[in-house]
Amino acid sequence: MFPAIEIRQVHKRFGNVQALRGIDLSIQQGEFFALLGPNGAGKSTLINILAGLALADSGYLKVLGHDVRANYREARRSIGVVPQELVYDAFFTVREMLQFQSGYFNLRDNSAWIDELLESLGLADKADVYVRSLSGGMKRRVLVAQALVHKPPVIVLDEPTAGVDVELRQSLWAFIRRLNREGHTIVLTTHYLEEAETLCSRIAMLKQGEIVALDTTANLLNRYAAIQVSIRLNPPRLPESLQPLLCGQDGEVFRFSLKHHAELEDVLRTLRMEEIRVVELDVSKPDLEDVFLRLVRS
Ligand code: ADP
């Protein structure tokens, strides 16, 4: 079985900006994968090359075994990319636009799938409305429908929920999850780390054109995330030896950032020895935001 996406040693430079510095990445069929990174990390560049909208300087990319350059047509048929911006013809209705897009893939009778897309994306009552007269949120739905018109086995969503209302976000994810259950491979980039954490089973983090972390979501959380602990102390003073662990103070409440739960044991022992009482204690679950900040700052 071919990987859904195979990327080997991909480099891309724009003038003197090295946007991608030797990306290696394999995504298996059926995965729900997140590509994360701060602005300028190279995510869009990588997606554009994958979609055949830009060329890599070196290395290769394959979609279901089809080289995006040498087998452009097959690769293009296998992937659907939801871009950030909608490019549309002002004189098309939603349905006409989807029919036109189907023609591009030589799909003559695609009405059943188009109807299903319109229904699932809450666009059914907008089918005969001009795209230009739709609201921003509705236009984004059209963008998703357009990328999925040829029912691609591999679906890439570039920041699909940026600036999108909660209702659309939820219905969009319900639909994408369904497609994933039915066997489609999903790759997404998002600024909403919570989204990546709940949806994706594996994550690559990109920084300055390089992959700095690649693992299952669970492993990343275990390995990099800090445990945030808030302790109210009486008397409200902190022994010298605990100062390095302190990341903030709010009156009598001291906030610590710990790597392991075992470290909490050490903190409590030190406080006991100094006869400082723990009045209140709150431990918060590590999250992806924390992993992300650590990797980006380091
Ligand atoms: P991201 O999607 O992670 O925010 P991009 O792939 O858009 O990152 O950008 C990666 C780097 O490449 C950035 O430094 C950006 O300024 C640069 N870049 C991207 N596209 C172009 C372009 N068409 N011309 C010049 N520089 C570009």
What does this structure look like?
The protein is an alpha/beta fold and about 300 residues long. The chain has two domains: about 5-220, P-loop containing nucleotide triphosphate hydrolases (Rossmann fold, 3-Layer(aba) Sandwich); about 225-285. The protein is about 35% helix and about 30% strand. The chain has helices at about 45-50, 70-80, 95-105, 110-120, 135-145, 165-180, 195-200, 215-225, 260-275, 290-295; strands spanning about 5-15, 15-25, 30-35, 60-65, 65, 80, 155-160, 185-190, 200-205, 210-215, 225-235, 245-250, 255-260, 275-285. The strands form three sheets. It has a six-stranded mixed beta sheet, with helices on both faces. The longest helix has 16 residues, at about 165-180. The radius of gyration is 24 Å and the shape is elongated. It binds adenosine-5'-diphosphate (ADP). Adenosine-5'-diphosphate binds near residues 17, 19, 42 and 43.
TL;DR of this structure?
34% of the residues lie in helices and 30% in strands. It is built from ten helices and 14 strands. The two termini are 37 Å apart.
